[in-house]
Write a structure and sequence with these properties.
alpha/beta, seven-stranded mixed beta sheet, 29% helix
Length: 340
């Protein structure tokens, strides 16, 4: 049983998954793509070939799951909660990109390059949760710095791409740009707002304490992944008119003095991270440069003057939300488990 199923394979993350698998030489015959009825029969380019889309109904899912060593879910929490247990019953490993299982302590929550050791005790069949995109990108840059001391506090301001709201939102951002260029009314049917030339609070529900759910995910998931229940995390998450790469301003407080040059050297030696810190040419991480890349870009590395005793580090990071922030990390989890 060596099949690979993607549930939600026609969405932004699903298509990214297919592209990554094709680039890694996975034969199209191994791949099964399931999606909503509106996509059934669609043919999707896959390397030099193609794969066809089947309906994600119970019968088709059970048949695909029975042939699959790994099932990637990229269709939202409701679908994952309904169908992931079925995939486990069929004997496969589920790698879920939604929020459905991130707080379930029986399901590992893993960023490869940060805490893949949490998979050492994982036994198939079962579910592995892929963390939230902003969490993955932040921790890829933060985790290597734990060698300099305990991190007491993370303060994050995120500038998140429209891709996090799905393929339809990306299409509408492009449509708004075209409409703006010719003076036409901006289409807002899918997102309900002007995105172009605008920045707005992250489009997730706001809890009674004023924290939205995206901010809550970054807080809770960071504590769990870094294994520190006492870690203080605060976040403000906003959307910006960028297609597919998130940017984050990160401020870290350590329990001892930390040298920014040592931080820079450590990040330069870290796999999956590229330091872009060109002071002379004012060249630092930008979403346009992170788009389509596997690595997280890190720059603006400096002392945080708001932290006493030289214990603060500030930096700016950019990462492709659809790749390392979602699809690539899921594929890396499957690779670590030797499922591909």
């Amino acid at each position: 049983m060596d099949g690979i199923t993607i549930v939600g394979g026609t969405g932004a993350v699903g298509l990214e998954l297919l592209g990554i698998l094709a680039d890694r030489g996975i034969a199209p015959a191994r791949c099964r793509v399931l999606a909503s009825p509106s996509s059934v029969g669609r043919s999707i380019e896959y390397g030099e070939g193609s794969v066809s889309v089947a309906a994600a109904d119970d019968a088709a899912c059970r048949a695909a799951f029975a042939e699959s060593a790994v099932v990637f879910f990229a269709a939202g929490a409701e679908v994952s909660r309904r169908l992931a247990p079925m995939a486990v019953e069929c004997g496969g490993v589920v790698i879920d990109n939604s929020s459905a299982f991130r707080s379930d302590l029986s399901c590992p929550l893993v960023v490869v390059g940060v805490n893949e050791d949490d998979l050492d005790d994982f036994r198939s069949p079962g579910i592995v949760a892929n963390p939230n995109c902003s969490t993955i990108i932040a921790l890829a840059a933060i985790s290597p710095l734990r060698k300099f001391g305990r991190i007491l506090r993370i303060s994050a301001s995120t500038y998140q791409a429209i891709s996090g709201a799905g393929a339809a939102a990306m299409e509408e951002l492009e449509a708004q740009a075209r409409a703006w260029a010719v003076g036409d009314p901006l289409p807002m049917e899918r997102t309900g707002r002007q995105m172009i030339f605008n920045v707005f609070s992250h489009d997730s529900p706001v809890d009674a304490d004023g924290v939205n759910q995206e901010e809550r995910k970054l807080e809770q998931e960071s504590r769990r992944i870094l294994g520190d229940a006492e870690l203080r995390v605060s976040a403000t998450c906003v959307r910006v008119p960028v297609l597919r790469a998130h940017a984050e301003a990160l401020h870290l407080e350590f329990d001892r003095a930390v040298d920014p040059q040592e931080v820079r050297s450590e990040l330069e030696a870290t796999n999956g991270v590229v330091v872009v810190d060109g002071h002379d040419g004012n060249k630092f991480p930008e979403p346009i440069d992170a788009s389509g890349r596997d690595e997280v870009l890190v720059g603006r590395i400096r002392r945080d003057g708001g932290v006493p005793n030289d214990g603060g580090i500030a930096m700016f990071v950019c990462g492709d939300q659809l790749r390392k922030g979602a699809a690539l990390n899921a594929v890396q989890i499957a690779g670590h488990l030797r499922l591909l």
